[in-house]
Design goal:
0% strand; mainly alpha; 251 residues
Length: 251
């Protein structure tokens, strides 16, 4: 195995940053709790409501993703010898046409999956039980919370996850001589496991996405390629949920 000792330290560093992400989530939720409590002690004409559970979850998730992004930026700078872009694999995308086709493939996969879920009720029930509904509880929590949810899913999460896994880690493994398949596996598996923490069944649904993201990263020779596919995937999922919500309201 190429650079075994250095690779072990690299993977341990990855785990350390993921652990720091969970700590960042706790700190963010704690800061929200303290801040909201202090605001409620300030007299004023408008009472400040206590944040609901969903708000705490969103703030904690943002803290986690923000910590991963910080880790990617920090480690990318170190790996690139001061050149963060090189350390993160940020370079012009090769074979743009193929990457565009992979974006289209993700849209096609999502639409096909929705069609299958509608055809087979058991699959539909399974998908509903493991897939987060970004636009759920719109009337209960207001547009501000929905905007935060959409921004987290479509922007912050793809950027932080791609720069962390298929940016810093991918570049570091390839520089150590790892084959593309091994690199793809070592970056996709922890990504999948993170998404399966609260719902292990979600891993099964996300395996195709992990494969396509890795293909885009390899073919495009840039983390910007996998980021484009990742954002396309998440934005399409949110748009499909929005259409479902609007269609449901018209019934």
């Amino acid at each position: 195995m190429p650079g075994q000792r250095g690779s072990i330290f690299l993977l341990l560093g990855m785990l350390a940053w993921i652990a720091a992400g969970f700590a960042g989530a706790l700190v963010s939720a704690g800061a929200l709790r303290v801040g909201s409590a202090l605001l409620r002690t300030v007299p004023g004409p408008i009472a400040v409501p206590a944040p609901g559970q969903l708000v705490y979850v969103l703030v904690a998730a943002s803290g986690f993703q923000g910590t991963l992004l910080l880790g990617a930026m920090w480690q990318g700078r170190q790996a690139g010898g001061g050149d963060r872009r090189a350390g993160l694999g940020i370079r012009p995308v090769s074979q743009v046409g193929v990457v565009v086709l992979l974006c289209a493939a993700m849209i096609g996969w999502l639409m096909s999956f929705v069609g299958l879920a509608a055809t087979f009720p058991a699959l539909g029930d399974f998908a509903k039980s493991v897939a987060p509904d970004v636009l759920s509880d719109l009337s209960d929590h207001g547009s501000g919370v929905v905007v935060l949810k959409v921004a987290l899913v479509t922007v912050l999460a793809p950027v932080s996850e791609e720069l962390f896994f298929r940016g810093w880690i991918w570049e570091a493994l390839r520089r150590r001589g790892y084959a593309v398949a091994m690199t793809a596996g070592l970056t996709a598996v922890p990504w999948l496991l993170l998404h399966g923490i609260d719902s292990p069944g979600r891993i099964l649904i996300l395996i195709p996405a992990a494969v396509v993201f890795s293909l885009a990263r390899h073919i495009g020779r840039s983390v910007l390629a996998s980021l484009a596919v990742h954002m396309t995937n998440n934005m399409t999922a949110v748009l499909m949920q929005a259409v479902a919500v609007l269609f449901g309201q018209e019934q």
